[in-house]
Specification:
about 150 residues; alpha+beta; Immunoglobulin-like; five-stranded antiparallel beta sheet; 10 strands; about 45% strand; globular
């Protein structure tokens, strides 16, 4: 049986498209410990590593960003169709709605969280499947006041 070049290329293309579809997954993000229902919770999933983000956010590296109205207690997000790779999950509770993580001196005045990975690096690894990321919001100024 002889296959034409076009038939072989079409079959290979079909396999590649199928493989590309399998190279994405959803990230279910659950945020616990919100202290109030003020403002919004902002979530970003990015390729930019934590050390680089201090120098400035590279918008081209962001693969998912969403804001939801805050609920006291817990809130959930679903980042859909995220390509395979290593990403970093950053969140903060923007209680006053100014879209900036506010500071009280050198200490964050609003809640923040990162997804814990190995050695404290907030990695989310996606490899052809779905991932769950559970994080707890931290309010540094509340911890210091205790």
């Amino acid at each position: 049986m002889i296959f034409s070049t076009a038939a072989v290329l079409l079959a290979a293309w079909g396999l590649a498209v199928g493989a590309m579809a399998a190279d994405k997954g959803d990230v279910a993000i659950r945020v616990e410990g919100l202290r109030n229902d003020q403002g919004h919770v902002l979530v970003t999933l990015s390729r930019q590593v934590p050390g680089e983000i201090v120098k400035g956010v590279n918008l081209e590296e962001i693969v998912y960003a969403e804001a939801k109205e805050s609920l006291k207690g817990d809130i959930s997000f679903i980042a859909q169709e995220i390509p395979d790779g290593t990403f970093y999950l950053y969140l903060f509770h923007d209680e006053n709605g100014n879209k900036v993580l506010d500071y009280d001196g050198r200490i964050p005045a609003e809640g923040f969280a990162c997804y814990p990975g190995k050695q404290g690096i907030p990695e989310v690894r996606i490899a052809g499947g779905n991932v769950e990321a559970n994080v707890v919001m931290v309010y540094m100024n509340d911890l210091i006041k205790k």
